[in-house]
Amino acid sequence: MDGGAETSSEVQTGSSLVPKTLTSNNLEKLLSFKAYRRRWLVLMVLCLLNCSNATIWLTFAPVADQSAQYLKVTLDDINWLSLVFMVVAIPLSFGTTWMLDTLGLRISLILGSWLNMFGALLRFFGTISVVSSDVRYPLVMLGQTMGAIAQPLIIFTPTKLAALWFPENQRATANMIASMSNPLGVLLANIISPALATTSTRIPILLLAYAVPTCFICFLATVGIRSSTPPTPPSASAECSSSEPFKEGIKLLLRNKAYLILLLSFGSGIGIFTCFSTLLEQILCVKGYTNDFAGLCGALFIIFGTFGAALFGLYVDKTKKFIEVSKINMSFTSLAGIAFSVVALMPQQKVAVAATCSLFGFFGFSIFPVVMELSVECSYPVGEAISAGLLFVSGQVLSVIYMILLQSLTTRLTDCPLSTCGDAVFSWRVPLMLLSALSCFFTCVFVLFFHTRYRRLEAEEQATYGTKQSDSSVKDQQALTAEQPTTN
Question: Is domain 33-241 in CATH 3.10.450.30, yes or no?
Fold first, then answer.
């Protein structure tokens, strides 16, 4: 065959057959894209690191009383061991996005793994018996702060890793696996902490149990991740990665109407889910539901969310219907949130409460990796870390605002015979109504006003096949080719 001749053929890219009229140069370029098996090792390291960091974040929340007793501090001080992750993440997020896009994936992950390990070890050594009780809490807080510094380096990485290491038909799946390892860590913390710290004296054993895996993960990251990118790109967008400089990327995002709508809508969703996870036990105890049942609802929320993320992640990898899946899921999430706001105010409705929590997680939690991919598609060629990082910052800021607002709207109850909350009992009727209203409002904004092209997919198609062709022109060219006589 002549080198400059055109041939009509079906070229296999990933899992789909794409009919195109290719030149020999374009065909050679397409066949040069390669996915390396090493990508699964990098993904595994990120998943383990993400899971470990989440367990460090939520170590003390399930055993707050035992932790306060051992560290000789108040419950408010124990709450700050978790809140420090939000406080630290907001100002550091911009530096983290710059580091990921400028210094690369390898340096960011290795630095995150070392900070995660040193933070976990410092927490443990700060609670051993030879350490004075006066300095135990400051040392634990310092360890938590190091873990909080590591969090943005870890949690911003899934979209970047998926873009650089995985072919286009696996990106959403890789993003889903990496992103859902964080809520898996939250689930493990809710199981492991109460199981190990049955009394206050077992707090050091609990911290040791969390510290040991961080050493192994740090070793894997340092030794196993040898480069930020594979030797050859897995896709056209990875090959032609032309991410804008950090400042220019921020400017482009602030002028991108579709991205700004996504930023507010999804950031509000993160804030709502943070409030739901944090306040679930306080909301349910008013109507007589026990802490064990609240823990079960939280577990169902995460389990069904992880299952939904796997299901929808595989689906969008095959179909590329990011917008449709996002809009449908956000709509059902709002309906599930309204249903929860109603049944949570009713006593003796365990089945209904558990069902609404499961649906809330299935449709809401599962949308996280899909929206992360959508943020890259609507903002390309802005760097993946910048577009995903700003979504995270928006979610953190709105989480703090929503938490303060919802708690300020509670009213103290003087007579509540069903309560299992202890002495302080508050009505959550108005806050739940506000939470449902916020969810519905931002869902409507997203469904009605969010429209975008898939910029990265279009760039990949043009880089691989040349000028983008319509379906009709492809069919016409195939018909003309079929009419031409074949020659040997």
Answer: no
